[in-house]
Amino acid sequence: MKFLLAAINAKYIHSNLGIYSLKAYGKKHVPELCIEIGEYTINHQMDQILRDIYVKQPDAVGFSCYIWNITYVKELIRDLKKVLPQIDIWLGGPEVSYCAGQLLKEEKNITGIMCGEGEHTFSLLLKAYKQLEERGKGALKEKDSFSQIPGLVYRGPEGNIIENHPGQLLSMDELPFSYSDLKDLENRIIYYESSRGCPFSCSYCLSSIDKSVRFRSLELVKKEIDFFLEKQAPQVKFVDRTFNCRKDRTIEIWNYILNHDNGITNFHFEIAADLLDQEEIEILRKMRPGLVQLEIGVQTTNLDTIQAICRKTDLNKLKAAVEAVNQGKNVHQHLDLIAGLPFEDYESFQKSFDQVYYMEPEQLQLGFLKVLKGSKMKEMAKQYGLKYRSCPPYEVLSTSWLTYEEVIRLKDIEEMVEVYYNSGQFTKTIKLLETLFPSPFKMFEYLADYYSQKGLFSVKHSRLARFEILYQFVCIYGKGREQEFRDCLMYDLYLREKAKSRPSFASDQTPYKEDIKKYYGEKGKKGPAHIEVMENGSYIYFDYDDRDPLTYNARTKILRGKTERTQDGKTRDKGRA
Question: In sequence order, which residues have a C-beta less than 8 Å from that of residue 502 and are 6 or more positions away?
């Protein structure tokens, strides 16, 4: 008997913790059966996935289902039965747990669905298959063998749909470690959970359904962190919904990571910033730049909205914590906003955006409400006038406060924020650009309007083209300051990499060729570097061997005459370049 656990991820760099956890638990309790893993992405051709599953020849397959892959899974299982007629097809995951009966009626090829937390249910399913195999009978002939397995919704012997009672929630320490090695996970994000559940009840989130929080023992967590450090995993993402909900635990784990840093691995945590206190912030300030990064769900700063979505957020404490962490200049902070929440209109969202932007996160994620099956938000959809996509990811189209036209406009603004802010490739230029507009939101709004008017959203642009477009935009709204912006754009262009091509607005460097050559000789620089002479007369030296570990930008030195000034403001005598 072979059971294949399949995941269709959004990107290659992602991995699916769920199927690794199922396999580990299944192997622990039913070691005799063969459990394999197959990971794919939504970018794979369906033919390729179908072929791979066929070649593996499993007796049963289980698909991990989410809003980003359910359409692909449905397409795949319709063809899978044609090439493997005897295969049993099982589904699990949040996208199918709240509509299992209906889905079985719609998709006749599905054998059954594992609802809710899956490890215990999966192990019992494996035991049932083992018993059937020992009796020499096919699984399809004796579906009544599944009748005592909690958490299953399945097709009975007569084709009738049977719903068993819900499965039990396990202690976190009952779950074996999901990873025996990282052989197939090189250069990918590793996902890890030290807790399940969430203490909060946000109405748009499925985590709010399980209000209790179960923690893995610190002894096990430390041992498993050691495994990641020893294997030098590039990034480990804790998927705990609110990692810092228990201060003593947060402090112990962060101190452990701090004291056992291997200089390579980055740890990602999703936290509630308003719960951070000075002791935790002091620990964060001691971290190697890039050792940890924080994801903080602000979602909105509208107090009526915060109340309506059942959040408990102290915005003043949140702002103070984010600013305090920023002062250390060693921790990447990713702040989230959600457009389309109740009581938040276009003007209100603008205020939320500006307030979060002024907190200066490394990334500002402008997301859109997804009305998820099983969430309280779905129950309140009619009351809030929520109209949303009929198919996954069920994204909001309009609300009682936000029109579809405004949602479209926010989508355009989102793209501008991604390109010109979150990319980190225009930091100096954007800082200067802010001075031309009444607010950051207005700046990105004007940029979005410019892209729309010029038909630029429908075209794929190179990195260099983005610089050209931004300069053309500046020539309209920054008249009289073009030279200042050209210098900033050139600085940003070379900050990330030594560009192979130069934009049309770049100044001619030929008159400075001998000066630049002489300076290279004095520095004795053999590695990758670049010197750009700006229109304001300064010489900027970009050292690509010496990069900021947080932003990965090159270190720069600003040269003026006989003075060399480093980024930290210190100066020292130096001969002219």
Answer: none
pTM: 0.91
Number of neighbouring beta carbons within 10 Å of residue 571 = 11
- What is the C-alpha to C-alpha distance for residues 63 and 8, in angstroms, rounded to an integer? 8
CB 112 within 8 A of CB 155: yes
Q: From residue 452, how far is each of 458, 471, 472 by CA, in Å?
A: 9, 16, 14
136 backbone φψ class: left, alpha, beta (φ>0; ψ -120 to 50): left
> How far apart, in whole angstroms, are the C-alpha atoms of residue 357 and residue 361?
7
Q: How far apart are CA 69 and CA 16, in angstroms?
A: 12
Average pLDDT over residues 234-250: 97
The CB density around residue 181, as the number of other CB atoms within 10 Å, is 8
**Do 341 and 305 touch, CB atoms closer than 8 A?**
yes
Q: Mean pLDDT over residues 492-518, rounded?
A: 93
* Buried/exposed 315-339: b ≥16 CB within 10 Å, e otherwise: beebbbbbebbeeeebbbbbbbbbb
CA distances from 266 to 21, 223, 232, 501 (A): 22, 17, 9, 33
pLDDT of 329-352, one tens digit each? 999 999 999 999 999 999 999 999
Alpha helix locations (H) across 396-480?
A: 404-417, 427-433, 440-453, 463-477
The phi, psi pair for 192, rounded to 5°, reads: -145, 145
User: For tokens 């494996």, what's the residue?
Assistant: 126
Residue indicated by tokens 């050139």: 490
Average pLDDT over residues 439-450: 98
Tell me the percentage of the chain whose pLDDT exceeds 70: 94
List of E strands, 127-285: 152-155, 161-163, 190-192, 195-196, 214-215, 235-238, 266-271
C-alpha–C-alpha distance, residues 409 and 445, integer Å: 8
Question: First vs last Cα of the chain: how many Å apart?
Answer: 72
